């Protein structure tokens, strides 16, 4: 049965943030709030935890996983970013955007798109998410919590706990999130192509 932490969305309790990060480092799969929707996450280097997320969401091999990063300087470690892409990303981060970029060798192969060798990169604008990233001191592997056969993400932490209490190790209740996923922008060739319109304003990329 999963643990359930109620964390204040504007003033996160450091004790609970540290405990959540300790669980992530020990192989936990967690549900946590973001600036777009609730999401599933695990340590980026943990294959068993990633496989559990793949089963929960019934993902295929073409799914683009996302690394949650603290800032653009961290992005440069995991993705190849040219000047055009950097300027555009700098103008709208942190925010509800996922950028598809060529992955560097620092990204585990299992997180890359198998043919394109790309990775999703995100700099979130949510206090709890950023507190987790600051404590973890490295990116978090993440994917929106949309269950198989459903079109919208789950939005209520109590309901998430009821439905996934035997599938995840921790549910962080940070209050209601939005039910829109991020806006996805493919920048693999340097020019932005909007793949999905979500919470992030697409205007800067049109």
Secondary structure: helix percent: 25-40%
Radius of gyration, Cα only, in angstroms? Answer: 16 Å
The CATH architecture term is: Alpha-Beta Complex
**SSE run:** EHEEHEHHEEHEHEEE
CATH-defined superfamily: DHBP synthase
The total domain count is 1
* Biggest sheet strand line-up: 1-8-2-3-7-4-6-5-9-10
Features:
206 residues, 10 strands, DHBP synthase, alpha/beta, 10-stranded mixed beta sheet, globular
Describe the overall structure.
The chain has 206 residues and is an alpha/beta fold. The protein has a single domain, classed as DHBP synthase. The chain is built from six helices and ten strands, in the order βαββαβααββαβαβββ. A ten-stranded mixed beta sheet has the order 1-8-2-3-7-4-6-5-9-10, with helices on both faces. Strand 2 and strand 3 form a beta hairpin. The chain is globular. The mean pLDDT is 94.
Q: Can you summarize this structure?
A:
The chain has 206 residues and is α/β, with parallel strands linked by helices. It is 28% helix and 21% strand.
